[in-house]
């Protein structure tokens, strides 16, 4: 019979514990956004929202969307009707519909948008903030040919 010394046993147990601990994925870091946006990672799908997505295009909603864009997005994206984006790889918001259907941004905004340029931060928003931001983005789209 093979005898295991206490130090060997402790080493084997420690190695096993390290293997188990290292095999679990690390928790995702919380997104770093301003207090004005108060984002979360949970949003009901558009079909479950009682008034449907992007229905609120009131001045208040558009103002909230613009404020979110100014506080969170404007360091990289042009958020107005003219001017270049501060980050050369960031699409101006007024031109987003040339690249994506604007309503398709709801899910990535809810889950943590991770597209665009390599150094784009990850953001996630609450449903009313998503609706306001998308309503604002839709309000500034420039005409383009499909």
UniProtKB/TrEMBL annotation:
Pfam families: Cytochrom_C (PF00034). PROSITE patterns: CYTC, PROKAR_LIPOPROTEIN. Residues 60-141 form the Cytochrome c domain. SUPFAM superfamilies: Cytochrome c (SSF46626). Residues 29-64 are annotated as: Disordered. Residues 1-28 form the signal peptide. It comes from the Bacteria. GO terms for molecular function: electron transfer activity; heme binding; metal ion binding. The keyword Metal-binding applies. Keywords: Heme, Iron, Metal-binding, Signal. This is Cytochrome c family protein.
């Amino acid at each position: 019979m093979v005898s295991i010394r206490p130090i060997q046993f402790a080493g084997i147990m420690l190695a096993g514990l390290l293997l188990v601990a290292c095999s679990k994925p690390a928790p995702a870091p919380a997104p770093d956004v301003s207090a004005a946006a108060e984002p979360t990672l949970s949003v009901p799908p558009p079909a479950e929202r009682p008034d449907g997505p992007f229905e609120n295009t009131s001045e208040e909603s558009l103002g909230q969307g613009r404020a979110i864009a100014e506080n969170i997005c404007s360091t990289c994206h042009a958020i107005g009707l003219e001017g270049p984006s501060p980050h050369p790889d960031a699409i101006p918001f007024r031109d987003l519909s040339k690249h994506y259907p604007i309503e398709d941004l709801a899910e990535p905004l809810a889950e943590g948008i991770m597209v665009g340029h390599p150094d784009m931060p990850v953001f996630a928003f609450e449903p009313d903030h998503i609706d306001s931001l998308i309503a604002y983005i839709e309000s500034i789209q420039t005409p383009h040919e499909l």
